[in-house]
Amino acid sequence: MIQRIQSVFLLLLALAMLSLLALPLWHKVDGLTHQELTLTAFGFDAQGLTVPAGIGPVWLIGALAAASAALAFYEIFQFRTRMRQLMLGSINLLLITATLGAEFYFQTKGEQLLNIKLEGQVLLAFYLPTLALLLNLLANRFIRRDEQLVRSADRLR
């Protein structure tokens, strides 16, 4: 059933990962040279600075986040097969962890591009995968609880 609490957690997870696509993750400003660098889910936005091409595919953050959100939406409608939901939750755990890893990787690359002595600001969207990770773990916990309830009811028959 879609009105279960784990469905709410999965919906919030998908919304958190979709919000990550629209919001900036990290920002750094050099006051002396007036250069700015912002990390988004699909690339670096630079003002007064040219970003070298050798940094890597920053769009990977956006792709992983979009895949995680899509998987969470799909997982909501797999309520009839709880074991499949648990498997999809495990895959989503890997996608969210990969998103976090990509965020940290490209943040450190951004730190090296602009005045190393200054520190960049981590913005709110940077922490959204951590929230999504927590929501995924809660959803998996309640899916397991439902499965145990169904198995205990089968034993009584």
Give descriptors for this structure.
4 strands, 157 residues, Butyryl-CoA Dehydrogenase, subunit A, domain 3, alpha+beta
**Which quaternary structure do these chains form?**
single chain
Reading off the top of the CATH hierarchy, the class is best stated as Mainly Alpha
Tally of domains: 1
Instruction: Report the end-to-end length measured between terminal Cα atoms.
Output: 22 Å
CATH architecture: Up-down Bundle
User: In sequence order, what are the helices and strands, one letter per element?
Assistant: HEEEHHEH
Shape: elongated
Helix content: 55-70%
Counting DSSP H or I runs of 4 or more residues, the number of helices is 4
With strands numbered from the N-terminus, the spatial order across the biggest sheet is 3-2-1-4
Question: Structural class, from secondary structure content?
Answer: alpha+beta
Give the overall average pLDDT: 89
Question: How would a crystallographer describe the biggest sheet?
Answer: 4 strands, antiparallel
Q: Any idea what the radius of gyration is? A: 19 Å
What is the total tally of β strands? 4
| Low-confidence runs of at least 5 consecutive residues | none
CATH topology: Butyryl-CoA Dehydrogenase, subunit A, domain 3
Portion of residues in beta strands equals: 5-15%
